[in-house]
Amino acid sequence: MDPTLTGPSPTFRIHEPTSGETPVVVEVPHAGLDVTPPVLANLIAPARSLAADADLYVDDLYTDAPQEGATLLVSRVSRYVCDLNRAEGDVDPRAAAGVSPRSSTHGVVWVATTEGLPALARPLHAHELQARLDEVYRPYHRALRCLLDRKRERFGFVILLCAHSMPSRNKGEGRGRHARADIVPGSRGRTTACAAVVDCPDVLAREFAWSVAHDDPYRGGFTTAHYGKPAGSTHAVQLELSRSLYMDERTFDKLPGKFGRVRDYCRTLVARLGKIVPASG
Fold it and tell me: What is the pLDDT of residues 154-175, one digit of tens each?
């Protein structure tokens, strides 16, 4: 077994299946809130932004995934430390000194909050950036690759569900703040997974009487695009859940009654994905 998976990690948790294993891996990269002291010393984003820009409670929503045979990978670290859904080289020159322009604002290290407020007191030194990559980013993706390889070796294919949440409205002002769909499956124009995997969250959402918009406004980030290779028997889909379905976006409180229903959706989705046998598999 890969040494990445032989012991606990301070930056992520792996929850193995507790019943019959399926080819499904659920990864939750943005629910964590942990910030290390060295990072905190240079972080000037408001405390509220750490919660507002996290995918709060998504790890709780998928807590039943192992009971449905899936492996659950959850980051414990705030995306203000390191954004695990970005490419390693996606670094804004304002985030770290001496890098080539590759991103604007929201790369692997965020320069500003979603609301446009500055997040860093100063650009990182090269060794500080490397420390974040070595301690957070690379171990997480090594673990994810190992899980995908293990499932693919056992089942002949693997299904990766990239679990996220999103604000219920876009960033416009006034009349420009349009409501988003309840769920957004992202598959880069249906290229990162077979049709059965891409359509599964859609079909189930309509059973729950929720609205769906594929790839709008999120087409799937780095993880979905990087690992989602149907021809190579890895099927990946990103799923954004509107936060208004399960939490008060102003107070960050879970919504009694509604939270349990969304958790039921997530559990059922994982169970259904586990029954899919892609044609390429």
Answer: 999 999 999 999 999 887 544 5
Please give the domain boundaries of the chain with CATH numbers for all domains. Answer: 3-37+51-79+142-273 (3.40.630.40)
Q: Are 69 and 145 spatial neighbours (Cβ–Cβ below 8 Å)?
A: no
Ramachandran class of 252: left when φ > 0, alpha when ψ lies in -120 to 50, beta otherwise: left
Whole-angstrom distance, CA of residue 263 vs CA of residue 67: 13
Residues 220/198, Cβ–Cβ less than 8 Å: no
Assigned token pair, 108? 């692997």
C-alpha to C-alpha distance for 106 and 46, rounded to whole angstroms: 16
- The residues pairing with 236 across neighbouring beta strands, listed in sequence order, are 160
Please report how many Cα atoms fall inside a 13 Å half-sphere around the Cα of residue 75, on the Cβ side.
33
Query: Could you give the CA distance from residue 6 to residue 232 in angstroms, rounded to a whole number?
Result: 26
pLDDT-above-70 percentage for the chain: 91
Residues 6+ apart with CB under 8 A from 137: 82, 84, 88, 108
Residue 61, pLDDT above cutoff 80: yes
- Sequence-distant (6+) residues with CB within 8 A of 271 are 68, 69
Q: Token pair of 159, please? A: 């299904």
- Separation between Cα atoms, residue 155 and residue 274, nearest integer Å: 11
* Token pair belonging to 60: 């709780």
Cα four-point dihedral sign 47, 52, 57, 59:
negative
Asked whether the whole model's pTM tops 0.90, one would answer yes
109/92 Cα distance (integer angstroms):
8
Q: How many angstroms from the chain centroid is the CA of residue 178? A: 23
